[in-house]
Every structure is written in structure tokens, then in C-alpha cells.
Write a structure and sequence with these properties.
The longest helix is centred in the N-terminal third of the chain and has 29 residues. Strand 9, helix 6 and strand 10 form a beta-alpha-beta unit. The protein is 36% helix and 22% strand. The chain has two domains: 144 residues, 3-Layer(aba) Sandwich (Rossmann fold), CATH 3.40.50; 121 residues, Rossmann fold (3-Layer(aba) Sandwich), CATH 3.40.50.620. The protein is globular. By secondary structure, it is an alpha/beta fold. The chain contains eight helices and twelve strands. It has a ten-stranded mixed β-sheet. Strands 3-4 form a two-stranded antiparallel ribbon.
Length: 277
């Protein structure tokens, strides 16, 4: 039995996150809806609280009550979806600082599913948001980042560059999402050397993939990884992308920065990643 958590901003409920979670969660798992009810996060701004005679206590109460109702409706939507799908579920209300609360939740979870668009702020931010970057730097379980628009996963592309983190991500995907192993799986590697005609550690990676994804196909591309991968995936649909990640202590602060940033900004594809160390 696996414990899968789906994180939501209750003020901006993500139907895409919910549907991806319902698709991924096997019926013998526990799906936890983590609602990030951060006490500092509201749907209204300071200017919204000001009436004709300055700050209005009545107006503030109306705004707060509206947020309470919105959050209740979000929870009801999550519960209804789980009930209709026949999936065992519970709801957590995390009322303290959202980032700290969610990182703590991941210590006791097998997989986190969250929208790549989440920010928990009024300020417009370029994707990925500061919240997502900070979360991925400290998260304690594999993560599936999903786009704001839902589409059913029908293919898997595993990005491999011989770094242990890329192999580890493939392992975790195999362990955590075994139901996706029956889908078409492609192993994609990009190298700068034009003469390169085999995968790095070719025999070992093929042997490993044969055990986990026996029907996988291999594709080797020459060029700059960030450019080639984004172009290769730009027109893809219904595809889960699997890639390695780093912790804060390593040279790269989170996922492979430019590549992950570009995939989140320029594609509408879910990403699966897991920390190697």
C-alpha cells in the first residue's frame, strides 16, 4: 500500500492535480489531499479591505468568510472525486507556513503530486514559481509536477545522461508507478559529440532498462541538451517526462535548472523526478 499526497491551494483548486492523482493512485493506496491553508495566504489584497472610510472590519469579515467558503468547496470537490473513483482518501489542512508544512508531509509519503503552476502568492511569477523551486530543493519523496490542464498519460520519456540521478529517477518511477510501465517508453539521451553513436555506459543502461522497461526504445540525439530536449518534447502530448534532480547542497539548486524551467514553461507535460542524494 502506498501513501500518495496531492497538494492543493484551496483558494485556487486545481482540477488537473486532482485528476492526475486519481489516475495515478492505485485502489489499494491512500490518497491524501493536502490543503495548504497557510494563514498568510488569502485571495484578497490589502487594497480590497479598504472602503470609503478606510479599512473596514465588515469588509474584512466578508472577504475572510468568502475564502473559508472557497476552501470548503475545494475540499468537497476533492472528496467527491475520490468517492466517485472508489479511492481511499483523507484530508489534511496545513494551516502554518505552506512550504514548511508540505516538506514535512513529504517525509511521510511515497509520492507528491502538485501543479507546476502553484505559487501561493498574489504576485505574478514566471514559471516555475519560487514556491515550486524551494519545494523541489527540500522535498523528501519523489514528485510529479503536473500542468494546469489535464491530459491522460499515454507515453513515457525517460531522460538519461549517465548521471546517477537520471537512473535513480527511472528506478523510482518504476517502483512508484508500475501501472505506467505497460505504456510505450522511450529512453532519450543527448550528447554534444557529433560522433557519439552509443549511450554512455551503453551495456549497463540497456541491461537495467530491460529489467524495468523491457519494451523501451532508445533514442540518441546530438546537440545541447536543454535545446534538443525541449524541441523534441515541444509538440508531444499525453507524455510523462522522467528526469533526475539535485538537492540544495549540490552545484545545481534544484532540478536541472535550465532544462526543467524550459519544460515547465514551454510544454504542458507532467514531470516525474526524485532526489538521488
Amino acid at each position: 500500500m502506498k501513501k500518495i499526497i496531492a497538494a492543493f491551494d484551496g483558494l485556487k483548486f486545481s482540477a488537473s492535480t486532482q485528476q492526475h492523482a486519481l489516475d495515478i493512485a492505485p485502489h489499494d493506496s491512500l490518497l491524501v489531499g493536502v490543503f495548504l491553508d497557510d494563514f498568510t495566504h488569502h485571495s484578497f489584497k490589502l487594497t480590497d479591505m479598504v472602503g470609503d472610510e478606510g479599512v473596514s472590519a465588515e469588509k474584512i469579515k466578508q472577504l475572510v468568510d468568502k475564502d473559508v467558503l472557497t476552501r470548503k468547496e475545494s475540499v468537497a470537490a476533492f472528496e467527491n472525486g475520490c468517492q466517485q473513483a472508489g479511492i481511499k482518501y483523507i484530508v489534511h489542512h496545513d494551516k502554518s507556513i505552506a512550504l514548511q508544512e508540505l516538506v514535512k508531509e513529504t517525509i511521510y509519503s511515497d509520492l507528491l503530486i502538485i501543479g507546476s503552476h502553484e505559487s501561493l502568492t498574489h504576485t505574478h511569477e514566471e514559471l516555475p514559481s519560487t514556491f515550486i523551486k524551494d519545494l523541489l530543493a527540500d522535498v523528501q519523496c519523489p514528485v510529479m509536477l503536473v500542468p494546469s490542464t489535464y491530459s491522460k498519460i499515454e507515453n513515457v520519456v525517460i531522460l538519461y545522461d549517465s548521471d546517477p540521478s537520471s537512473v535513480y529517477a527511472a528506478k523510482m518511477m518504476s517502483y512508484m508507478l508500475p501501472e505506467l510501465k505497460s505504456l510505450p517508453v522511450e529512453i532519450l539521451s543527448v550528447h554534444s559529440e557529433q560522433a557519439q553513436n552509443s549511450f554512455p555506459h551503453d551495456e549497463l543502461i540497456r541491461e537495467f532498462m530491460l529489467c524495468h522497461f523491457p519494451d523501451a526504445t532508445f533514442r540518441l540525439v546530438s546537440g545541447i541538451a536543454e535545446k534538443e530536449v525541449v524541441e523534441y518534447l515541444a509538440d508531444r502530448q499525453n507524455t510523462l517526462v522522467v528526469l533526475g534532480a539535485y538537492r540544495r547542497s549540490m552545484v545545481s539548486r534544484w532540478l536541472r535548472p535550465s532544462l526543467a524551467d524550459a519544460l515547465i514553461r514551454k510544454t504542458q507535460l507532467p514531470l516525474f523526478t526524485a532526489h538521488y542524494k
